[in-house]
Amino acid sequence: MAESVVLDPVDLHLLRLLQNDARTTYRDLAAQVGVAPSTCLDRVARLRRAGVILGHRLELDPAKLGRGLQALLLVQVRPHRRELVGPFVERIRALPESRTVFHLTGPDDYLVHVAVADMPDLQRLVLDEFTSRREVARVETRLIFQQWDCGPLLPPAAPPATP
To answer: Of 15, 79, 83, 111, which is most buried with the most CB atoms under 10 A?
Structure first.
């Protein structure tokens, strides 16, 4: 498990601002946080080196790209052995429809978030790319009606000090 990084209030404020708009300039970040631009640049660089900031991503609207139907696929792989699941995961990650792949505990081994054009495209994907694989024992499909993003990811709050 990755080791957590100690973050002070300035780091947390920077992370909140950058998660809300990663294009914010260092000058604007510094002004909002109350530090010099050079200090802001140094802190963000330190957060990158520490692996807290993993990258910058452009968010796209799947519907505007012709992928208006999204679904979650619960996949059971049998036998669940490394020599089978490694190639399975790499193949699924390479599919243009795949958005995210989660390795799970419980009766299902993987949860795959996909974005497709329509119902026939989803059926094609499930039949041709999932159930046709010999290691896939079962696939359950859940359509996504609506999705909401949540607030910035921050470390858990410190427990209150005991007197």
So the answer is: 15
